[in-house]
Amino acid sequence: TEDDWRDIAKIFEERWNFPHCLDSIDGKHVDIIRPSGSGSHYYNYKGRHRMVLLAVVDAKYQFIMCDFGINGRVSDGGVLQNTTFFERLENNPLNILPEERNRNTSTILPYVFVAEYAFPLRMVMVKPYRQANLDSKDKKVYNYRFSRARRIVDNAFGIVSLRFGIFHTLRPNTH
Q1: Contacts of 92 (CB under 8 A, 6+ apart)
Q2: Cα–Cα distance between 28 and 37 in angstroms, integer?
Q3: Where is the DDE Tnp4 domain (predicted)?
Q4: DSSP string spanning 99-125?
């Protein structure tokens, strides 16, 4: 609901100093044992067979949405476009808040998701400035705050990995 999004955005602003942030999005490439008969379908540029877990994580490291199953050859941006989340994002049954005045300022800002460079830039999805474009203090501050908000999804993957012992590199059977 809009109230749920507003609560998440408030926590992102209070904890991570990034106003109007709804969630952090990223993909995690997971090593798999190649299914028989799949050929190079899951083989990626790093020379491994992988599938991608796409996650949307809130400011409290809670997974709001996960989608798993796209082959590892597809970029994170391509994975996003093949999810139910993306379909809902496009058609707005997610009840994303309209742009509003930022707390304690007169600036009107949209509510957004934060994502890495690989994701498509959209009205509701922002990315950092590239290093070559960091020509002002404002852009550097934006990137710093962006990084604080975006790393939440990476931290959530790390927490899951440590807690459940998953996402570790597969070792080939040498016997």
Answers
A1: none
A2: 24
A3: 25-170
A4: PEEPTTSS-EE--EEEE-TTSPPBTTE
